[in-house]
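Per your request, structure below.
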């Protein structure tokens, strides 16, 4: 999934060293629509706050069309004025990077990524494929989703897992490394461990938890090749997922965590009652806390050192 550079993410509480704004004020103003670098790409964003910290302006930005989970503090070097010239730069960069809107992981420029699978979601037990999203084009030709951001379930990813996503992106896209497969524990094993953990903690086997975990497994298997892989990982996928083997028996926590970034978008197309959605949200957050608690056990600290060759053995650059 696309992630921000580690050096640019700053805590909201880092306001102890604010200074009075200088006469020339900030380069960008609050509520201003801007273009922001995030990873290798440029996205539309809105400045929520502007503060002077240690004689340097910092901006709290919201990426338009994305969950507030991605809001962050950035420096002026990450932002550009929303001008026609800079929009052209954005489009040129996307073209250069060879954006694959149907299968890349991470943000797509100015829009939320949707799965292209055709199966519909069963609202009772979530035993479904990634929901099929419909898109329309605005006057500018930029694809916009028909669903509003308000319909998205909010899944707050713990800070240490956000850093895990950042490291994951950097290992693959900047250091040309891959997750060595098959992983241990696999996604299936992690889901089983969580079910055992909840059963022991609650003193009983919860049918609802079991059904949700089956749904997560199904989402993962269907969404992985469509929207969870970086380009550099696709050849590896074709090499290891053979004879209808389920990806959840091969991949591990690194790719499972990426699913939780996509879940708000996928679940937006599910017709679930509000009470059920609230309960689901709480269970998904509890599962993320379980991942966080076992982060050192479930996640790799380093990826495979073999380099990825551009466009050949293990896929193209993302």
């Amino acid at each position: 999934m696309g992630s921000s550079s580690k050096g640019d993410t700053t805590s909201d509480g880092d306001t102890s060293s604010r200074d009075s704004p200088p006469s020339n004020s900030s380069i960008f103003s609050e509520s201003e629509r801007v273009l922001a670098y995030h990873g290798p790409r440029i996205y539309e964003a809105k400045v929520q706050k502007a503060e002077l910290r240690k004689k340097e302006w910092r901006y709290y930005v919201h990426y338009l069309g994305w969950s507030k989970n991605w809001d962050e503090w950035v420096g002026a070097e990450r932002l550009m004025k929303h001008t026609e010239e800079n929009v052209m730069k954005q489009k040129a960069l996307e073209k250069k990077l060879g954006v694959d809107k149907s299968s890349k992981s991470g943000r797509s420029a100015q829009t939320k990524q949707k799965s292209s699978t055709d199966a519909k979601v069963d609202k009772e037990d979530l035993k479904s494929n990634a929901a099929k999203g419909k898109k329309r084009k605005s006057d500018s030709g930029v694809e916009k989703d028909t669903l509003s951001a308000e319909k998205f379930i909010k899944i707050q990813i713990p800070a240490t897992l956000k850093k895990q996503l950042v490291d994951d992106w950097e290992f693959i896209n900047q250091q040309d490394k891959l997750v060595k497969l098959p992983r241990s524990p696999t996604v299936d094993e992690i889901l089983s461990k969580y079910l055992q953990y909840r059963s022991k903690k609650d003193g009983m086997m919860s049918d609802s938890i079991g059904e949700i975990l089956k749904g997560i497994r199904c989402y993962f298997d269907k969404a992985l090749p469509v929207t969870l892989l970086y380009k550099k990982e696709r050849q590896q996928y074709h090499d290891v997922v053979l004879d209808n083997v389920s990806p959840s028996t091969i991949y591990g926590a690194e790719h499972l965590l990426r699913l939780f970034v996509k879940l708000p978008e996928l679940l937006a197309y599910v017709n679930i009652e509000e009470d059920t959605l609230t309960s689901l949200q709480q269970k998904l957050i509890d599962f993320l806390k379980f991942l966080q608690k076992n982060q050192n056990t479930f996640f790799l600290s380093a990826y495979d050192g073999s380099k990825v060759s551009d466009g050949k053995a293990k896929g193209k650059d993302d």
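The radius of gyration is 20 Å.

Regards,
D.
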